[in-house]
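Weekly structure sync, notes
Attendees: PL (lead), two postdocs, one rotation student
Agenda item 3: pending single-chain targets
PL asked that the sequence for the first pending target be pasted directly into the notes so everyone works from the same version. It is reproduced below exactly as submitted, 434 residues in total.
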Amino acid sequence: MPTIFWFRRDLRLTDNAGLYYALREKRPVISVFIFDTTILDALTDRDDRRVSFIYQAIEQLKHDLEQLGSSLDVRYGNPVELLPKLVTQYQAKAVFANHDYEPAAISRDGQVADALQTQNVAFRTYKDQVIFEKSEVLTAAQTPYSVFTPYSRAWKHKLSDFYLKPYPTERYFGHLLRCAPLPLLRLEEMNFKPNFTDLPPAQVSEDLLKNYAEKRDFPAQEATSRLSVHLRFGTVSIREMVDKALQTSEIWLNELIWREFYMMILFHYPHVVGKAFRPAYDRIVWRNNEAEFARWRAGQTGYPIVDAGMRQLNETGFMHNRVRMITASFLVKHLLIDWRWGEAYFAQKLIDFELASNNGGWQWAASSGCDAVPYFRIFNPALQTQKFDPQGVYIRRWVSEIDKIGQYPRPMVVHEQARARVLAAYKTALKGEE
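Predicted structure, written out during the meeting:
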């Protein structure tokens, strides 16, 4: 009676917690991936880079399994309906997977567990995509942290070699179900257009990390790890990356801890999906000008650093982290447009979109989140440009018309006036709260 391992945000064979435990059962393990229609049907862009990235990762995973004499059973549909059918087909005794922390995923997994229970089949999940999850890092009062610095201190204090030890799945590959190669759906059969753009490698050099603290804020330089998409879909191991960070870059380690901080916040405070972490900030009266939002999306605001970032995002599915902060701050505080509008647009365009980090980043920019920037701190795009792209190299890469007279739009808002306007709006909403 075989075991099913359900791949999700863990698209690799090595150092995979759930796969390790499934293989250790010493029953034949059949690997399964499901293109979840409850997620895919909600995507309006059928040219979605993330779907293409997942597809490429699935192709590689399937190839790796077939090199071992097994294969990957790839399905398209609702996991709540498909998994009971797969259990029947394979006469499986259990389904293994790794934890997911998003509210929709938690609900889905609950439904899967209930459906499998009616078949007397166990559904077992494990921690894999983070070092510390849920309530593993708490305050002395046993409550979740809401400020990053003390959380990161507690995180580092708790860390030991035990948490970095890789899961030796290779020892048990002999327990993979032996079978002939299974067919693979084409993207077109799921009504998606292939978009196989150049992607960053699933590795980061030691030299880059050693210079990370000094160079990471300069968007014209290739000085960030670009591993966010690989961490998002689990094509790399977080344990391996944290171990590398410990040896090379404290600042990069902090970025990995921010990722876990926001996942912890999402797990304990699921209301952040759609609402401010700090409820008073839901009283802000937004202008929400549709025409201005369209200009921001298109990179036509008249602020070169903002427009360069938006054009990079639209063309590549990626935006440098420093520029993400500048563009988000501009939308919320210069245009007084609801942060949820920007969050949704980034969710649609970013190839490395991850709910917890995207939500946390936007609420940070809007000052509505936990440990967010104070509402009166408003990025000045001109000063940010002088500091982080002083020669305009990054800007000219994406705003080619910047030096052509009459071709680049005038600024759509004056910084000083926008600052005064947003401060008044926030003070009105937060009266008595700050």
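Discussion points:
- Residues 49-67 form the longest helix (19 residues).
- The chain has a mean pLDDT of 96.
Action: rotation student to compare against the earlier draft before next sync.
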